[in-house]
User: Which sequence fits this backbone?
C-alpha cells in the first residue's frame, strides 16, 4: 500500500524558512520513473503545484516560486524535503506531497493528507 | 505561462449527468487528469490520461479531451459526488498546471 505523510511546523513567522518533510512507504524513489511532487492549497483556493523530484534526482520547480524553493530526497529514509524561503502570509496553505508512478505519466495517483502551515507574526 | 480554466460551479440533480469543462490552448495535445476533492480531504485521482479510470473509481466517471477543451462527465450523479473537481495537465514550459476548480453541487 502506497502512503505519503507530510510533516512540518504548523506556524512560521514572516521571512522565516519553511522546511517540510514527506515520508512515504510502499514504493521506492530509486525505482526508475518514480517521482514525488509538492502541491499547496491556500484556504478556499485552488491547488498550486510547487516542485517535483525524480528517481534520477532531476528537479523541477514552479516558475513563479523557483527562487524560493529547494527540493531534495533521502532515498534510504524514504523522505522528500521541501524548503521555502522568505515566507509571507500569502504562503498560508495546506501543503501536500503526492506521487507520480512512472516516467511518462503526468498525474499524481496517491496524495498525502496534507499539513497546514500558517504564516503569521 | 500555461493556464487551465474551469467554470466555478456546476449544479446537477441526482441521477442526472454533470459535465465539467477544462479549457486551455491546444489542451487536446496534452494528457489531462482530474481530481475530486471533498471538504477537508486531500484530492483523489478520478481520471488520468484523458479517459482512464483508476482502480476503485466508479464507472459513472468518464473523461474526454479534444481541441482546447477537456471534459469530465459524471453520469447518474449521486449525492456523494458533491465535491470540488480540478483538472491538471503537464506543459513543457510550466510543468504541472492545475485548473481553477469547479464546485459540483447535487441539488
Assistant:
Amino acid at each position: 500500500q502506497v502512503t505519503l505523510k507530510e510533516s512540518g511546523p504548523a506556524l512560521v513567522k514572516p521571512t522565516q524558512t519553511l522546511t517540510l518533510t514527506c515520508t512515504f512507504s510502499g514504493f521506492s524513489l530509486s525505482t526508475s520513473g518514480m517521482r514525488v511532487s509538492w502541491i499547496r492549497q491556500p484556504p478556499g483556493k485552488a491547488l498550486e503545484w510547487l516542485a517535483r523530484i525524480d528517481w534520477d534526482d532531476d528537479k523541477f520547480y514552479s516558475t513563479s516560486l523557483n527562487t524560493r524553493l529547494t527540493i531534495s530526497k533521502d532515498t534510504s529514509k524514504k523522505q522528500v524535503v521541501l524548503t521555502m524561503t522568505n515566507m509571507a502570509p500569502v504562503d498560508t496553505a495546506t501543503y501536500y506531497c503526492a506521487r507520480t508512478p512512472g516516467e511518462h505519466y503526468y498525474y499524481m495517483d496517491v496524495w498525502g493528507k496534507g499539513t497546514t502551515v500558517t504564516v503569521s507574526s | 505561462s500555461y493556464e487551465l480554466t474551469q467554470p466555478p460551479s456546476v449544479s446537477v440533480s441526482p441521477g442526472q449527468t454533470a459535465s465539467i469543462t477544462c479549457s486551455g490552448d491546444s489542451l487536446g495535445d496534452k494528457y489531462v487528469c482530474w481530481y475530486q476533492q471533498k471538504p477537508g480531504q486531500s484530492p483523489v485521482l478520478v481520471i488520468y490520461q484523458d479517459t482512464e479510470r483508476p482502480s476503485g473509481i466508479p464507472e459513472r466517471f468518464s473523461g474526454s479531451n479534444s481541441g482546447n477543451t477537456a471534459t469530465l462527465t459524471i453520469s447518474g450523479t449521486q449525492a456523494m459526488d458533491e465535491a470540488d473537481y480540478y483538472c491538471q495537465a503537464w506543459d513543457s514550459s510550466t510543468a504541472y498546471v492545475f485548473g481553477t476548480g469547479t464546485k459540483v453541487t447535487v441539488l
Notes: Chain A touches chain B at residues 37, 39, 46-49, 52, 60-64, 96, 98, 105-109, 111-114 (CB under 8 Å). Residues 15 and 87 of chain A are 5 Å apart (CA to CA). The mean pLDDT of chain A is 96. DSSP finds no helices and eleven strands in chain A.
